[in-house]
Amino acid sequence: MRRAVIVGAGIAGLAAALRLTRDGWRVLVVERASARRSSGYLVNLLGAGYDAAERLGLLPALTGSALGAFTTVLVRADGRRKFTIPAAVAEAALGPRTLTVFRGDLESALFDAVRDRAEIRFGTTVSTISQDADRVTVVLSDDTTVEADLLVGADGVHSATRTVMFGSGHRVDLPYVVAAFPLTHPVTAVPDSSAATFIGPGRTAALVNLGPHRSSAFFTYRCARPAEELERGPVEALGSAFADVAAGVPEALRRLRDDPAQAYFDQTTQIDVRPWSAGRTVLLGDAAWCVTLFAGHGAALALAGADQLGSALQRHGRDVGAALAAWEAGLRPEVVKRQALARRGMYQYAPPSRFHVWLNDTTIRAITLPGLRTLVRRGIERQSR
Predict the structure, then answer these.
(1) CATH: 3.60.21, 1.20.1260, 2.60.40, 3.30.9. Which one for 173-268+351-384?
(2) Beta strands 26-31 and 119-122, pairing class
(3) pTM of the shown model
(4) pLDDT tens digit string along 267-326?
(5) Residues of the chain below pLDDT 70
(6) Is CATH 3.50.50.60 the right assignment for the domain spanning 3-67+97-171+270-345?
(7) Under a CB-based contact definition with an 8 Å cutoff, are residues 128 and 145 in contact?
(8) Closest by alpha carbon to 190, among 84, 94, 99?
């Protein structure tokens, strides 16, 4: 039986564990965190991501937590409404083979599917890695040594596996920070089953109200020194960047003060590693290609990448090197496209001027016109292939 060690118990790592165990691999997943973590932002599974979720058998578990389409209200800084995007517009634009869930619910579905198939060790890291033509040997922080046929580094944008095996210098840091956190109870300023979104020069704030334990907050803004913003922490940094924004933002930030650790708060970074593999070690998900939240396909790419990795390994049998090369050749063009779309997406989430805000508003208004919905859906479908 072939054996794999997977570093990271996020979406990419758990999806890889699920796929490989279904293909007969013996899998060990190690995770630095002491327990599972949840995050409050929404992820869309469409195109190859939806297909992968279907093949991995995740759709039945995800259907119950699917958020469905909801109304979005674009607002001004003082909370006054600009215009409304009805739920039907998003539903028509995205099409039927789409699933919107919270990231934490997707990770829970993956964990539940794989926990009886693979060994998962929390609070464990990789100390050393060595490999030859026949095996990769990993020494873990709990002083155990594991020999495997494959090592998968799925430990995120700050991947230690990437640093050890591929060196530093693969980060493309962008002048933005992103924050997201769950809202146990929705803020009162946002109507039920809707989202309130403020987009101004250099920043966006979005609050989603889908009921208790189904609501969340998302913020992003441009800044000259992201590292200094991270040192300030999410409460102080967001409080300063959005001090003049109403529409429920003050209430959401007051909630954040009670538990700042619940927030995902990080600099916006893309990863560019070429190639993604070295010998029997391969990077997967954000560790290999982080496209950023601006791309909107991070979770879908993680699922699709894991599923396609399993397919390549299955096709090439014991020839791990050939499998990894074929897998990367098939997936890299999609990743490059998503990263380019993310860089253009910065103008949507953090428009550089009031003119760009107006241009975005005009485009969004046009999408709400019935005659354009089909065209929008076809464009999304083309981008999702």
Answers:
(1) 3.30.9
(2) parallel
(3) 0.90
(4) 999 999 999 999 999 999 999 999 988 877 889 999 999 999 999 999 999 999 999 999
(5) 38-40, 92-94, 369-385
(6) yes
(7) no
(8) 84
